[in-house]
Design a protein that fits this description.
379 residues; four-stranded antiparallel beta sheet; 17 helices
Amino acid sequence: MAAAIEILDDIAGGRPAEQALTRWARSSRFAGSKDRAAVRDHVFDALRHWNSDAVRGGGTTGRARMIGRLRAAEQDVDTLFHGQGHAPAPLTAEEHASGAEPEDTPDLWDLPAWLIGRWRDSLSGDAARTALALTERAPVTLRVNTTKTDRETAQAALRDLGIETIPNARADSALTVTSGARQVRLSAPYLDGLVEIQDASSQAAVRALPGQGRALDFCAGGGGKSLALAAQGWSVTAHDIDPRRMQDLPLRAERGGHTIETCAPDEVADAGPFDLVLYDAPCSGSGTWRRTPDAKWALTPERLDELHKMQAEVLETAHSLVAPSGTLAYATCSVLSSENASQIEAFLARHPDWVTTRAQSWTVDAEGDGFFLACLTRA
């Protein structure tokens, strides 16, 4: 608790969450792996409830927010804030008397106030549920590499190592980890390429893509979708404006038994045409804020406008790489209509010779993150 308070104050001072956690860990080498994991959990739980915990705790300091987190969990604060050893100091009389349940929508939903109107416009009757879903911890989901195994065999191999999973209904390749999640990356099924860590909504979007042939993962990042496409039989080329993001992809591809080419930014224009161009657009990430809650508080109206412009500009480049009878797949991990349906409507207005063949959204829930996919072809 004391370590989490220190880190939250660092974050409130402007330091990104991962940097604040790393800074603390380097100065606290006495902390074991379980301690570091527990501190991280406290910090991210507080970030998910940044507004509401401040209201419950009666202040905006890291200490007040941790008091608010304990109150939200209906735990006795005094049993942990007692000042013995490394524990935080006992509550003052003022702290005991402070705090309330959040009532205003930005506090109750744990969203930036400027975003509330756009949130309601995008999600209508599902706005409140989605906002509250983003305050929960995200599931750990695995993609079974069907070129090497099937879901049941992968489950059994994980179970033998104490990692329990259940089938995830969002995609027939998906398993949700119910216990032993921290052991996955060191397990033989992971190291041998039988499973990869990938959200179920992302998996479902890739499974929904039509056909086979040559595919370009246009904004590949770490390459999770490149690997999923290869597992479905596509001949995959991965590209990213920052090739350093793909540095782990060759090892991941080798582990999974896939051959994936990479394409430098200055080569992509001559690499096409492709039967499929998957453009997983840079976006707010609003559908994944359970995993990166500090991104929710870092987003500004100006940054969102920049993302809108970038999404439209890259769509113009991506569509030129599609073969005459191919598919352009536009995807985001956002739940905001301005990044999803509105971008597709604007693209079709600019290019009336293109049509939408599929548009689908996945909600934020216990199965997976918020996600959007639209498939476009020439009329």
